[in-house]
C-alpha cells in the first residue's frame, strides 16, 4: 500500500505549501498523474466601461429586428450591415456587429459561443421584484467601480477581497508542484481578478519588455547584495515593507520569464498592432513557455478600455469591436499554432450592459444584463446560451424604464461554468461564487 | 487667449493660513524637508534652508501669492499633449508656485479629464490653467468652472446634452450627473465628518442618492453648448471651441421639475443657468463634501492613511475657514499641510508611495537638475503614469486601493507592478549612469565626496532620505560602494542605490 508521500512523488514533484490542503482530495489523485496534455488556461478579457452588448448581438428574424430597431432608432445598426449567425441547434437567427467577422467565423466553426443577458444577480428577479423597495440587488448596480469589482470577484458586497480568477488558480495549485512562476498573469496592470491571499500574480508588460537595467539584484555582485539587503532594512513603515516585498518578486519573476522565453521560437501568428492585440500576444508567449515555468493551470487577465459610450456610440463601437474581434481571432489562431486551442478558453467580462434606449448624444447609459462571448476549442460553439431578453423598453425584462435587462444568467453561473471546466471541484465552486445555489447551475458551454 | 474665471476671485477668502492658537516653531532641516515633500515637488537644499529661516506660515504666504507658472498656448503643429507634459515637468522642477502646482496636479486627479479622449493640446491647456487658477479659491467656484469647462463638457458628455425627445425616444445622458456626484463631490455613501462611513439602525450603509436624483441632475445639465462666436447667441450645437466656458441654449434645456440631493426639488421652467447654479450649490453644500475632499487631498499631498481625527480637522476647515466661508481651498490646504499629523513623526501606518511623476521630479530637484522636460514624460508613462492620460475618470488609482499584503490604503501601489518597477530602475539607471534627453545633472558635489564612502552616504541620506537612514543601512551602502573604485562611478552608484530603494519611494 503506497503512502501518500510515495504517491505524490510519483506525480513528479516535491511537496509545495499548496499541497497540504489537497492531500484529502483523493479524487484528483485517483485520475492519475497529470501529463503535459492536462494543461488549461483561462483568459479573461475585461471590457472596461460597460459594453453595450445590445449592438454586439442583434436579432435577425423579422419580428426580432423590428422590435430592436423600434426601441432604439437613434443607434440601431442597419439590418443589412449585420453579420448573420445561426445557432447550430436551431432557433432564431441573429446577427453580429459588422466589425466582428472573426467572431462570425469562429461561431460558424463552432469555436465561439454567445451567452445572453448575463449580469450580477443576488437571486432571480422579476421586473416587479427588481423595482420593489428593499429588492436584493447587487450594491451600486450602476457604478463602474463597484460593478468592475463585482464582475472580477463575484462578491456583490462593498469590500470584495479576492478575484475568482486567482481563487480558481489557488484551488488548483496542486497540479503544478514544480511551478517556478505565478499561475496568474496580468497584462493589463493590477486588477482584483488576479489577487487572492495565497496566490501571487505576475504582471507582464504588453510590449514584452523585461530587461533589467542598472544593477540586477540577483547577479550576486557586492552591489546586488547591497540592493537585496536594503530591501530588508529601515522597514518600520508598513508601506515600505509591502513595497520591498513586491520589489523582490518583481525582479525574480522578470528573470524567470526572460530565461524561459529566451529559447522560444517566435510565434508565427501575426497579431494586430492594437493595445489588446499586444496584450494577447504576450499571453500567447507566456503560454508558449508553460512547461519551462512548470505550470499546468494558468489564469490571464487582459483588458480594453473605452466602452463607456455615453455619446457617439455607433462610431466608438465600430472601432472597439474591430479591435476586440481582431485580437481574439489572432489569439485563437496562436493557440492553434501552439497546439493548445482545446485547452485555452477566452471569455469577456464587463462592468454592465447599457440602456436599450438611447440618450440625447447618440449614446447609452449604465444598465445591467449584457451579452458575452467565450472562445476556444473546448467551447461547444456556434450556439447562443442563456435566454435572450424581450427587447421592449419598459417590458417584462426591463428592471427600469430605459431598457436595463434583468439578467437571466447570473455572473455566478457564467464564472462557475468556466471555473468548473478549469478544474475547480463542484464542492469548491460556492467558495468562489457565493450566490451560485440561487440559480440553475452551470451552463453546458464547455466540453 | 486666456479664459475668464473671474468668479474665483470675488469671494471673501482669508489671506494666508489664518490665525493659529499657537504659532508654529521654525522647522529643523529634517522637518523642513518633510514638509517640502508634501507641499512642493521635492525638497532642495536651498529651499530647505529658506523654509527653516522663515517658517511654515511665511513660506505658505509666499506660495499663495506666487504667480502661476502656466502653460503657453500650444502651436497648431502640436498633435498631442506631449508639449504640455514637458512644460509640466519644467514648471515642477523650477517654478516658484510649487504648492499651486501640487494642488493643480491633485485636483486633476479628482476632477479628471483624460487625454485618452481629449488629446488636443489646444483644448487641454485651458483645462490645466483652470485647475491652477482655481486651486486657492472656493470649492463651489471650482466646481462651477469645472462644470462649465468645455474640456470637461466634452470628456463627460455634458456639452450638447439635450432635453428629452419623445419622437427620437431619447433622454438626457447621465454621464456627468453620475460622475460629478460619485467622483467629484460626495461619493456613493453617507460619511461622518471624520471620513468613516455612516450606518443606519440596521447597520447598513446609507446611499447618498438614487437613480431619480441622477436623472434630476442629468436634466439640469441640458442645453449647454460650446460658446458661440462673439456677438452671436448660443445655438445648439455650436462649433467646438475650448477657450471659453460653455453657454446655454434655452430651447434645449429641460423645463421639468428636477429632484436633487437631500430632497431638494427644483421647480420647472427655470433657465439653464439658474438650474445649474442651484445644482452646484446643492452639491457643494452637501455635508459629505468636506470629508470626501479631505481624504483625497491628504492622500495626494501627505499620507495614504490619515486617521479619522485628521480627516475631521480638515473637513472642519472645509466647512468654515474661520471667517464663515465654506469650501475655502486655501484654508483646506493649510489644514492639510500644517496638521500635527502631517508635521509629526510617521507611525507604522504612515507615509505614501511617491507616484511616478513625483518620484521623477523630486529626484531631479534634489540633484539640482536642469531640464527642458523632453525625456521625462516617457519615463513616467513607462512607470504606468502617463501624465494627463489617466485610464478613466476614476484616475490612475482609486483612493481606496489597498496595498497588496496589507490592510492599509495605498492608491499609488496600483501602478506598482513588476514592469513598472523595472521601468523605475531603468529611469534611475539612465539618470545615474546614462543620459536623459534634455536633462543635465552635475554630479561634482557627489564625486567630490566619493573618496570617503561614509561621507557620500551621509550626504545622500540628508539629500534624499532626510537623514532617516539607519546605521545598518548606512553600513550596507558603504560596503557596497567600497566595491566601486572609480570616484565618478562610485558617486553615481550611490545615487542609483538610494534612489531605487523603497525608502526613497515611500515618502514618510
Name some characteristics of this structure.
heterodimer; A: 447 residues; alpha/beta; Alkaline Phosphatase, subunit A; nine-stranded mixed sheet; three-stranded antiparallel sheet; 13 helices; 32% helix; globular; B: 508 residues; mainly alpha; two-stranded antiparallel ribbon; two-stranded antiparallel sheet; 47% helix; disordered N terminus
Describe the structure.
- Chain A has 447 residues and is of the alpha/beta class.
- Chain A has one domain (36-208, 275-438): Alkaline Phosphatase, subunit A (3-Layer(aba) Sandwich).
- In chain A, 32% of the residues lie in helices and 13% in strands.
- In chain A, strands 1, 5, 6, 7, 8, 9, 10, 11 and 12 form a nine-stranded mixed β-sheet that branches.
- Chain A is globular and about 75 Å long.
- Chain B has 24 helices and eight strands.
- Chain B has helices spanning 7-10, 29-39, 45-54, 56-65, 82-94, 98-107, 121-133, 139-148, 150-155, 175-182, 211-220, 272-284, 289-301, 308-319, 329-338, 340-343, 356-366, 376-382, 418-433, 444-447, 453-465, 471-482, 487-499, 502-505; strands at 224-225, 247-248, 258-259, 265-266, 352-353, 370-371, 439-440, 506-507.
- The longest helix of chain B is centred in the last third of the chain and has 16 residues, at 418-433.
- Residues 1-14 of chain B have low confidence and may be disordered.
- At the A-B interface, helix 6, helix 8 and helix 9 of A face helix 10, strand 5, helix 19, helix 22 and helix 23 of B.
